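In response to the reviewer comment on reproducibility (Comment 2.3), we provide here a single inverse folding case reported in full, input and output, so that an independent group could reproduce the run without further information from us. The structure tokens appear first.
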């Protein structure tokens, strides 16, 4: 389970916040993909799509493979994230030409290293066949959709429905999980009375005046659970009502405060997954991508200190991906 949203500053800066929920870290490391690498995906009958990285990118990987990014930012200000869609990801059938096939877990790296905008990303995906191989660590085919944002503020999702790619604009800039994005947009219409931050006005009944008990009674009635529909609605409410930050630096802080409201501690999301495996999803890390200043920021469940990577200062040379093990840490101790 994951929550993603886009925020904009009054000076035009754009940033994306994202939480990553899973029972464990999946071997995740901070990963740098240099320019000029030759990467190859897999196909049922041999090597799949092969490409040379045009742009450098920084992101978080998964399953121990530096090519399998869960999200990331490239040096052109394009952000791509993979979010779960259990029960709703119906991938394309693999093409007979093995070199046409792109495994879905390679899609984030494929797009980030070749596209500069959401429109370019959609065109790249449309030119290949995206299929879903079984992954043994996930114990099945990973059900994913792709969330995309660029430095102009454009936003979209690539979803897989009825064995076909669906490229959808996402002007709200919000994404969570199943079902498909168009359903979430329709669901917003069910909660229009709750989508405001203002306290309700007092009412009078038979001469008795009833005023709100306290500040903060806007949004009463929005779902408070951690399900994908409830999180989508709350993220949409935040995007709609938060006062915009002045610039990119303030926008990073605003994203961090908003992400705090979607942080899921251990024990709050339990049950069995589609494979019948008991799992306890929790927010293992959160990321902020400043698309305007090219900063990628990560905060771990085990380390509350945000770690920032400046892509403008990152060396995107080299002949192979570079990875950094992010260090778990507690709170800093001070004496007062």
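Designed residues, in position order:
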């Amino acid at each position: 389970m994951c929550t993603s949203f886009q925020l904009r500053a009054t000076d035009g800066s754009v940033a994306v916040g994202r939480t990553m929920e899973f029972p464990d870290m999946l071997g995740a490391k901070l990963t740098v993909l240099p320019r000029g690498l030759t990467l190859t995906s897999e196909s049922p009958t041999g090597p799949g799509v092969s490409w040379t990285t045009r742009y450098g990118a920084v992101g978080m990987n998964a399953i121990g493979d530096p090519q399998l990014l869960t999200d990331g930012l490239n040096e052109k200000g394009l952000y791509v994230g993979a979010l779960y869609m259990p029960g709703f990801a119906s991938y394309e059938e693999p093409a007979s030409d093995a070199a046409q096939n792109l495994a879905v877990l390679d899609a984030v790296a494929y797009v980030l290293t070749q596209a500069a905008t959401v429109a370019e990303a959609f065109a790249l995906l449309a030119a290949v066949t995206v299929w879903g191989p079984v992954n043994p660590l996930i114990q099945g085919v990973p059900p994913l959709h792709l969330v995309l944002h660029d430095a102009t503020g454009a936003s979209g999702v690539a979803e897989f429905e009825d064995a076909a790619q669906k490229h959808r604009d996402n002007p709200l800039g919000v994404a969570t999980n199943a079902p498909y994005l168009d359903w979430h947009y329709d669901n917003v219409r069910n909660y229009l009375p709750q989508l405001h931050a203002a306290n309700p006005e007092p009412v009078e009944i038979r001469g008795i005046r009833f005023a709100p008990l306290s500040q903060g009674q806007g949004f009463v009635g929005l779902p408070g659970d951690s399900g994908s529909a409830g999180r989508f609605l709350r993220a949409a409410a935040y995007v709609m009502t938060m006062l915009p930050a002045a610039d990119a630096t303030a926008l990073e802080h605003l994203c961090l405060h908003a992400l705090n409201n979607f942080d899921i501690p251990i024990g709050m999301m339990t049950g069995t997954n589609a494979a019948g495996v008991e799992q306890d999803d929790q927010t293992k890390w959160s990321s902020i991508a400043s698309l305007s200043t090219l900063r990628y920021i990560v905060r771990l469940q085990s380390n509350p200190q945000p770690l920032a990577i400046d892509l403008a200062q990152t060396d995107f040379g080299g002949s192979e991906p570079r990875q950094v093990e992010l260090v778990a840490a507690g709170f800093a101790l001070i004496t007062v």
